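Teaching note: in complex prediction, the entire set of molecules is handled at once rather than each chain in isolation. The prompt given to students was simply: 'Predict the structure of this complex.' The entities are:
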Amino acid sequence: MVLQLKNYEKELFICAKCGYCRDSCAIWRVNGFDTVSPRGKILLLKYFIEQKKEFPPELIENWYLCCTCGKCAEICPLEIDFPELIRTYRIEFAKNKKNIYNALKNCA
Ligand code: SF4
Ligand code: SF4
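The expected output is the structure of the full assembly:
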């Protein structure tokens, strides 16, 4: 599935890659992979959108590893509302029902 920028171009392009969000994320502290951190998700999403490439199903699963607690947004110096990005792109991914099934199957 090739994603469009929709209304979140600004958020994806202003991210300073500082990583404060990552350090505040309980999911990242347990998982340990940068691809699961808010910063990692933003950078990967931006890459695939810019390249107009299909977003890999194995990366979609990471978007379900977030409880939308908002800790990352509270600490982000650029006020990126990451939980809103999560909600928006979960809806995008859900347009292909196969994506939901795979993500939840592997999280269970
Ligand atoms: S805290 Fe904000 S600016 Fe820094 S990496 Fe995270 S999302 Fe990007
Ligand atoms: S909203 Fe998601 S990414 Fe942000 S700190 Fe909470 S669990 Fe981590």
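Point out the following to students. The chain is about 60% helix and 0% strand. Helices lie at 9-14, 20-24, 26-31, 38-50, 57-60, 71-75, 82-94, 97-107.
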